[in-house]
Amino acid sequence: MKKNDVIKWIYSQNQSGxxxxxxxxxxxxxxxxxxxxxxxxxxxxxxxxxDEVLAKVNVFKWxxxxxxxxxxxxxxxxxxxKFMKDKNGRFGFVVLKDNSIRKDIFxxxxxxxxxxxxxxxxxxxxxxxxxxxxxxxxxxxxxxWDKDIDVRGFILESGFREGFSEEVLNExxxxxxxxxxxxxxxxxxxxxxxxxxxxxxxxxxDWEDAKDLDDAISVKYYPENDWKQxxxxxxxxxxxxxxxxxENSKVDREAVKRWTSVYLADRVLPMLPExxxxxxxxxNPDTSKLTLTCExxxxxxxxxxxxxxxxxxxxxxxxxxxxxxxxxxxxDIKEGNMLSFWxxxxxxxxxxxxxxxxxxxxxSKYREISWTLDFDFPEIKLEIDxxxxxxxxxxxxxxxxxxxxxxxxxxxxxxxxxxFFSYPFLYRIHEEPNFEDVEKLQNVLDLFWVKFRFxxxxxxxxxxxxxxxxxxxxxxxxxxxxNVILRTLAKAIYSSENxxxxxxWLKYYSHFTSPIRRYPDLQIHxxxxxxxxxxxxxxxxxxxxxxxxxxANSSSSQERKAEKLEYKVRxxxxxxxxxxRVWERFRAVIVSVIxxxxxxQLEDSVEWLVEAKDKYRIKEEVGVIEDIYSKKVYxxxxxxxxxxxxxxxxRIRLNFWMV
Length: 659
Prior knowledge:
This protein is of the alpha+beta class. Helices cover 29% and strands 29% of the residues. The radius of gyration is 27 Å and the shape is globular.
């Protein structure tokens, strides 16, 4: 992206302050990156969250920032909050929670409908004029005493939805009955070309509270003998959602409106109804399930000898949690012990888990040689009770078996992508960073005295840098520098073109393993199934070539919206949890700096801002913060003590002072 280039963007409002970011509207892969730019509040004009804008990139004090020139298309997002009438009932106001509109919304009498004081209403702009826009109330959503009102409002405002229509649910019910009768899952006589793998020892590994189990694995080890070398067979079985969700059916059209499942702190917004996502398609144990299986034959040196993909039927023998797999490998759980889901450990399970772990270690060594990037950021887990109160905030536990599943799924995704790349397909791509961003990262490394120089800026060098940081740097600086490295890299997106995945250092990579929760996975399942059944003729190939680019772009955009909603709900509950701890002091680390704020991370991984105002002088280009009065100097990565001075639920933000 060159300075002063004018292109189209999507604006995204930051929840912690009156600034935002822009991301490219179209995925211009020729730029060599897909990234966003900071927008100062003085350069916002009258933009709203998710507006389509025309903007250019300028440099302010050594920092690239976007300047919005014009709003091209207004957002269609839902705007919700409390309605109040004047005492004579001639007009009313709606006070929005949305930080991108910082004033009350005037509603004339003719657009008030039957709204009453304190009703929670959905409003939209009838005619846009920043000084005096016309608004109307579309619908009264809830009454103000509803405890769930805040999060439900966030969901509607973001464009996502809860629940499914009766029409969609009835279609699923009728369709399932017809297909089950036709297939007779419990029998073996009508499987057609579907391979029966119910004899194969199979298990799932997931979190204890997971509902949608869309992947299962089987591992067979073949020792070396006189006529064959040692090798493994890795089977990755993925729920055959496409068997039940036909293209252009009612449930498919509803999935297209969502594009992805959204995992919030207190609930899940599924892409598919629970009858499918948690029921029929979920690979629960001791139940016959329809799947697409990717069978990989792997040598002891991780040479992928063969990939076979076929329709199958499986019956999972065990449902395991990540913690249990670690305990099985460490012998903390032994043969005869009872597991979480009321199964007893047997010898076959132990042998298979050890074979799987050995295969994981072999693939890991290969991946280290091939220089893939491996970030390990702490994730926040919120424990929320039925009254919607946060009981605890802690870091998500990380187990070795997380890596096992991750490696097997990446291997499967690569193998499928490599096998079907000659047909219309969807890919998960990750562009290489551009020279300017790598140069900025080098400057930050120099500030921290990290003895590392970029030459080519390729995956190998980034991998070496991550390893050096984790071996040599202090804990407080590791997380900061890892964040800086991540921000240097482009965002992974979906594409109908097969381009390089920089982070994984893979030429072929597609998302195949989660069709219950990601639409691109469901879409390529359809293509694969048509190819396997000889139905992928010229007409269908032309059809897919026509629609895949749109699916890729929409899925990428919706993925960003889902991520923003997840963070917003998480932050809302964090603020709610901390509101009774104002004036309490905490240990923290300075993790980020922007012109008017710097951010600190607490010991429980909660990250929030410290306002500069007239107290601190920020030198962003060198990562230095100076206390104007005491002259004390702070740097990125410094461990500090902070005091919570504000917990604002309306604006969803915490504000700290340095002690």
